[in-house]
Amino acid sequence: MNERRRYPIEVFGLNLMRNQKTLLAVGSGLVALFAYSMAFADVYVYKDNQGVLTFTNAPNHSGYRRVIKESGGPLSTGSMTSASYEELIRLASGRRNVDADLIRAVIKAESDFNSSARSNKGAMGLMQLMPDTARLHNVNDAYDPNENVEGGVRHLKMLLERYQGDFTLSLAAYNAGSGAVEKHGGIPPFAETREYVRRVLRFYESYRGAVQQSLQQFRP
Fold it and tell me: What is the pLDDT of residues 104-161, one digit of tens each?
């Protein structure tokens, strides 16, 4: 955990738009489909004569190629419903300029997309907001997905700005609090916090890498 992860300047959607020969037929639904695939679905892609890519989990002709294989792992109710929160994630990402894949990764690690989750320490909802954090960001109902994601992303943005985009410190502070990070001059020596940072970064790389690696196969 010695390597510091910096907040990326370019978001995924912006990178795609810079390649004018690569057009996405599914818009924002593409991200939802990939999030869905992280839980249990194969994803297929078809490239037409104009270079337009169409992604689906239900191919209807032989021109589709599978680019993401079903994980085959055990499923949880939270994972199976992750796609239903994609609009909330996308909107919060745009409002706060926080990488949507990072938001997905935090939610995955915190609650596994279970909006009713409550920890034994009292953290609540999708992004597991503590009562003080919820009050800080004017979240009245931490179990409401809209309020929870908005409050959680605001808090994450605040930490990213505080630690100058340093992923590891921001995530450590999200888990253990800024006081602990500053007291120890970095990631606190807590096994839970260190494992949390590793898990979120692993999920982040999975969400981000799955889409990018698939699109590389179709670059002109």
Answer: 999 999 999 999 999 999 999 999 999 999 999 999 999 999 999 999 999 999 999 9
- Count Cβ atoms within 10 A of the Cβ of residue 72 and give its class: 0-12 exposed, 13-18 middle, 19 or more buried: exposed
Q: What is the pTM of this model?
A: 0.66
Parse the chain into domains and list their residue ranges. Answer: 12-74+210-216, 78-206
CA distance 159 to 29: 29
The catalytic residue among 110, 182, 192, 195 is 110
* 192 annotated active-site: no
Q: Does domain 78-206 have CATH number 1.10.530.10?
A: yes
Which residues have C-beta within 8 Å of that of residue 97, sequence separation ≥ 6? 157
